[in-house]
Amino acid sequence: MMHFFDITNVAIAVMGYPVSYVELIGTLFGLISVFYASRANIVTWPTGIINELFLFILFFQVQLYADMFLQVYFFIVTIYGWYHWKTSTVEKKVSATTGKGRLFLLAAAVLGTVAFGCLFRHIHILLPAFFTTPAAYPFADSFVMVLSILATVLLARKKIENWVLWITGDVVCVVLYFKKEIYFLSLEYLIFLGLASYGLYHWNKTLKHG
After folding, report:
1. CA dihedral 136, 140, 142, 145 (to 10 degrees)
2. For residues 71-79, average pLDDT
3. Which of 26, 3, 22, 27 is nearest to 11 (CA)?
4. Who contacts 125 (Cβ-Cβ below 8 Å, separation ≥6)?
5. Packing angle between helix 183-208 and helix 162-179, nearest 10 degrees?
6. What is the residue-wise DSSP string for 38-93?
7. Is the confidence at residue 16, as pLDDT, over 70?
8. Rg of the chain, C-alpha, whole Å
9. pLDDT higher for 149 or 184?
10. pLDDT score of 90
């Protein structure tokens, strides 16, 4: 059974690139989840859970530890978002954060990236029993992690700025995953970039029309 979750267990080959079952399932459900998020549809949350579980396994095996821990956070916030959207007596409308809120997001992104980057840079020294290999690109990985944390909270609260953060993170992910030779996931994030851009457009249109 554990062999199924190994990244060497190939499901399909795309233009000569072997795609593992873990990468394939995580990628497909990620696409589905982001599509429904762009439509402000509650299905984004259950499909997101499947995406998170499989990417957790994938990122551990390619030493992107910040992304791995990010999936744990995603899982918690996904449960919150799903509950929040489902139980709200009044449908929460799309809104924008204040100027002060945007400054907070910027400060949190910078400080969080530095703090987590330093942590994951040394995690193989701090926890050698669990992480035998040094983290790959700890600061770029941490930047994506922090942006994703902030964006997920904003998504759950239907704040339009979540898409700006997703777009920024997606650009970094396309390059980062390509350099780590997980090409199928890199391609997925290129598609995510398009979906996030559409989400920003769609939510902005909704915001203007109240």
Report:
1. -110
2. 89
3. 22
4. none
5. 170
6. HTT-TTHHHHHHHHHHHHHHHHHHTT-HHHHHHHHHHHHHHHHHHHHHHH-SSPPP
7. yes
8. 17
9. 149
10. 59
Q: How far is CA 209 from the centre of its chain?
A: 29
Q: Which residues contact 199 (CB under 8 A, 6 or more apart)?
A: 34, 37, 38, 163, 166
How distant is the alpha carbon of residue 17 from its chain centre? 23
Up-side HSE of residue 210: CA atoms within 13 Å toward CB?
A: 0
| End-to-end Cα, the chain, rounded Å | 50
Question: pTM for this one?
Answer: 0.78
CA distances from 147 to 61, 141, 167 (A): 22, 10, 10
| CB 117, CB 138: distance < 8 Å | yes
Summarised one tens digit per residue, pLDDT across range 21-36 is 998 999 899 989 988 8
**Mean pLDDT, range 115-129, rounded to an integer:** 92
